[in-house]
Task: inverse folding
């Protein structure tokens, strides 16, 4: 069995267990942590996670962060000038882009067909790297998580600290980690 299949099996073990309902949004988040080199493999097998979710008796919706920056940038009036002077974009990235990315995810989280039994599978978070921090986007949407938010996370989890794409800095988050390391998967 390959690494992605192992992760989907561990994911199924977690998602099929009875859900506690009175959790805060951050506690309803599950990080499926995998090696950044497995990004294409994971995307090719995302359907496996959907199948496991449905087998566990839950609904599934997915969200892709990959096009979010391009959509945000294309909507800006002065986008050409930002390509000439990228440093001028830093303030907008810290505030406006975070809100935009969060709102794009929130649209799926708040869709009419999303219930407390729905799992939202969010992938493509590596496309946020260098523009904003995943933690900032998640903080913006925590209150909108009804069921569970599964974040497919190419990076590391160690000592309760998440690092996207092996970046130096990481952050501590209340999410449940699902990893290939047996001692780190929580139920």
Result:
């Amino acid at each position: 069995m390959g690494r992605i299949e192992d992760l989907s099996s561990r994911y199924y073990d977690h998602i099929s267990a009875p859900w506690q309902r009175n959790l805060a949004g951050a506690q309803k988040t599950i990080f499926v942590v995998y090696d950044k080199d497995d990004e294409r493999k994971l995307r090719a097998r995302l359907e496996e996670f959907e199948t496991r979710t449905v087998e566990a008796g839950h609904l599934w919706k997915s969200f892709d962060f990959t096009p979010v920056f391009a959509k945000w940038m294309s909507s800006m009036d002065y986008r050409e000038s930002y390509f000439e002077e990228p440093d001028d974009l830093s303030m907008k990235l810290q505030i406006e882009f975070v809100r935009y990315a969060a709102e794009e995810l929130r649209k799926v989280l708040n869709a009419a067909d999303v219930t407390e039994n729905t799992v939202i599978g969010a992938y493509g978070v590596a496309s946020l790297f260098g523009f904003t921090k995943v933690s900032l986007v998640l903080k913006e949407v925590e209150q909108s998580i009804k069921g569970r938010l599964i974040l497919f996370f190419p990076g590391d989890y160690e000592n309760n600290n998440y690092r996207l794409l092996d970046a130096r800095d990481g952050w501590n988050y209340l999410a449940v980690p699902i990893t290939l390391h047996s001692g780190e998967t929580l139920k």
